[in-house]
Specification:
With about 250 residues, this protein is α/β, with parallel strands linked by helices. The chain has 8 helices and 11 strands. The longest helix is centred in the last third of the chain and has 17 residues, at about 170-185. It binds adenosine-5'-triphosphate. This is ABC transporter ATP-binding protein.
Length: about 250
């Protein structure tokens, strides 16, 4: 299995709550997973643990056979091969679109960097926008530059934290369609965090639903559509056992 998270455990210091309580799930290569949950359920914390920005209290996480953490192994964020896109895009305002994308690339010749930047900008349909600055772009275009920058180094996994929350409703609908198409075209494995059920259902191959720091259910969007576990007796057992396989 491409990515395996097993019995992941985390609490913030000085907090009585267990923020991530015994999470186990697997992700296949090229799969798009939505982590769906209400505000405060622990979604961003899970992404921070995957990214290596927080140290888990227990459990293990491997990505493409590499131990990200397990017992005393803790791979630093910069060595994990994981790209991130956050809700505020975090583009460098004084850099052009192309320079923003080039920033994510290292250890390549100048020629190769330029080629890769052109490729990813084409993928997100921003060819011709290379010389513009972030303030000269729409919100959706800025979001696509952020995605291009994260995808440029060909990370093994991309994490997206509520990437649409700053966009207006019409744009959200368009961008989520674009995002799924872009991720699938590049065969990128992605974990996408949202509190919005529509986004989760439109984008994901599978959804990991979190309630109060615990995995409530895992399943395909068609399995989980609009139902709560109490409305489908036995649902947790079937989907969870079938799908985590760890
Ligand atoms: N630095 C911190 N110190 C202590 N508690 C924290 C810290 N950051 C988050 N928390 C708490 O951990 C819990 C989970 O927070 P987290 O940000 O992961 O939730 P979330 O599901 O991403 O929420 P949102 O959708 O609002 O971003 C919340 O109860 C939050 O108050």
């Amino acid at each position: 299995m491409f990515m395996v998270i097993k019995n992941l455990q985390f609490s913030y210091p000085n907090s009585p709550l267990v923020t991530v309580d015994d999470f186990s799930f697997t992700v296949e290569k090229g799969e798009v997973i939505s982590v769906l949950g209400r505000s405060g359920s622990g979604k961003s914390t899970l992404l921070r643990l995957i990214a290596g920005l927080e140290m888990p209290a227990g459990g293990s996480f491997t990505l493409n056979g590499k131990k990200m953490f397990c017992n005393k192994t803790f791979l630093q964020p910069e060595k994990r091969g994981i790209g991130m896109v956050f809700q505020d895009y975090a583009l460098f305002p004084h850099m052009s679109v192309k320079d923003n994308v080039l920033f994510g690339l290292s250890k390549m010749s100048r020629k190769d960097k330029n080629k890769r930047a052109e490729e990813v900008l084409e993928l997100v349909e921003l060819t011709g926008f290379e010389k513009r600055y972030p303030h000269q772009l729409s919100g959706g275009q800025q979001q696509r530059v952020a995605l291009a920058r994260a995808m440029a180094p060909e990370p093994e996994l991309i994490l997206l934290d509520e990437p649409f929350s700053n966009l207006d409703m019409d744009l959200q609908v368009k961008i989520r369609g674009d995002l799924r198409r872009i991720l699938k075209k590049a065969k990128t494995t992605a974990i996408f965090v949202t509190h919005n059920q529509n986004d989760a259902h439109a984008l994901a191959d599978r959804i990991v639903k979190i309630v109060d720091g615990k995995i409530d259910r895992i399943g395909r969007p068609c399995d989980l559509l609009g139902e709560s576990p109490t409305e489908i007796p036995g649902m947790i057992e079937i989907t969870y056992e079938e799908l985590i396989g760890v």
